[in-house]
Amino acid sequence: MKNMKLAVALLATCALSSAPSYAQTVVKHIQDEKGAIAKGVWAGDTYYLSGQLASPVTPADPAKGTAAEYGDTKVQAASVFAKIQAALKEQGLDMKDVVKMTVFLGPDPKTGKLDFAGMQSEYVKFFGTKEQPNKPARSAFQVAALAAPWAALEIEVIAVKSN
């Protein structure tokens, strides 16, 4: 009986030591107290960057009563891609690390029509170039409008830190 207990104990020890260990994914939210959403979220080696909108070409001037000017789809796309690149750089990433992109295109503020070509003309400056040949998987959607009434597009990306 004593040998039987010892055999069972050894068997249990072997079974537990050979059981696979599952590491938990570390999640880190990049956010500030003022924002309603996270700027981005790390889940392991994957970074999810929230949708980016263009910065104004000409800021609003309350003294003159003028609104900010954001430009057409092409101008806004240039701003958005530059913002994405800067946000990735803050996290130790680059455009080459982008594996998935989602583009939401609203009507161009100048024409009222979708301007996919305007967005694409800026996209090709950052992806599939001689200096940066990687291209992400991408989806592009036409939307009736975006949350910001002046916005012609919003782009979100997923990037993975390479080892």
Would you write up a description of this structure?
This protein has 163 residues and is α+β, with helices and mostly antiparallel strands. It has 3 helices and 6 strands; from the N terminus they run αβββαβαββ. It has helices spanning 2-18, 73-90, 116-123, and strands at residues 27-30, 40-43, 46-52, 98-105, 137-142, 153-160. A 6-stranded mixed beta sheet has the order 1-2-3-6-4-5. The chain starts with a helix and ends with a strand. The model has no long low-confidence stretch (mean pLDDT 90).
Radius of gyration: 24 Å
- Give the rounded overall mean pLDDT: 90
Give helix and strand order, one letter per element, not per position.
HEEEHEHEE
Distance between the termini: 53 Å
Report strand order across the widest sheet: 1-2-3-6-4-5
What's the total helix number?
3
Spans of at least 5 consecutive residues with low confidence: none
Shape: elongated
Which helices and strands, and how do they pair?
Layout: H1 2-18, E1 27-30, E2 40-43, E3 46-52, H2 73-90, E4 98-105, H3 116-123, E5 137-142, E6 153-160
Notable traits:
alpha+beta; 26% helix; 23% strand; six-stranded mixed beta sheet; 163 residues; 3 helices; 6 strands
